[in-house]
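Chapter review. Work through the record for Stage III sporulation protein AG before attempting the end-of-chapter questions.
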Amino acid sequence: MLEKFKNDPEIKEKGLKIIALLVIIAVILLSFDVFTQNKDGRKQIIDEDGGTEAQLCSILADIDGVGDVDVMLQHDDDDNITGVIVTAQGAGNPIVKNNLINAVMAVFNISSTSVEVFEKKAANEYKEEDLNEK
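Structure tokens for Stage III sporulation protein AG:
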């Protein structure tokens, strides 16, 4: 019976087609993986319009006591938010800082240990530092 499978040209042709299809699928999957990873193996998450970060900045800037805000989001392989860094004017105030942390926790359903908030320098502080360095 095994000889029948070896010698039947129709079965050989189907087998070759299946193998060719599997090779094509493997090449497609491998090329997709290569294009979605950085050289160090980390997947690159691109929010092309910056929508999530821009929305978060807008919401956080509306909190009482908060001035200019910047955020950075860290994602896992499944695009889930795993960490957030916030720099905001006014974050030196413990109440404002706590409000920022609570807002981020609520939006992304993450723990407070995944959120870091830092006081953002005022624009005039940059100029003073530059003058002191010279």
